[in-house]
Amino acid sequence: MKDTYKTIVLESKGIFKDKGSKFISYAYPVKNEDQIKAILAELKKEHHSARHHCYAWRLGTEEIRFRANDDGEPSSTAGKPILGQLLSNKLTNILIVVIRYFGGTLLGVSGLINAYKNAATDAIKNNKVVEKKIESLFEIKFTYNELNEVMQLIKNEGLNQIKTDFKETCIIRFAVRKSDAIRIEKLFKAIYRVNITSLN
Fold first, then answer.
1. Domains in the chain and their CATH numbers?
2. CA angle in degrees (0–180, nearest 5) for 85-88-89
3. pTM of the full predicted structure?
């Protein structure tokens, strides 16, 4: 089972120039469309005199959603080449925006595709690509009688505790690598009076 994905960790910038036109690229790690909208609005404000603000993004780790936008450039000459770089580098949870300042000379379809592709490549090259684990989330509920056994299991398996709440009933939320999820769930179910719920 594939339970990893590639993404970027930083914001980065790239540039490509051709026949007076300047293509400034920005790459961002993103988690949702609201974040993307906010970044696009900010860049449009910052580069208000630019002719085009083209972009592509991919979101998700298993079911991946994506979008490409030409922002007035001829169809498939801008957003698609940017998206192509996200696909060829197998990146997700990423937004790349390429801003074009027109230099007065038309580049033609192949020239535009080349420019947007190279600008996107430069932004990725100036970033750091990392591989992350796809995780499953669980919540367990138990009494203080089971606390030692539960904590020992969490320690032995190196589980990532996200939230703990020790009141009358003890509640722990934790994340586990997806490929280990079924095995870990069985281990907790084997402990008497521990209720485990999947939160995915």
1. 4-131 (3.30.230.30), 134-198 (3.30.70.240)
2. 85
3. 0.81
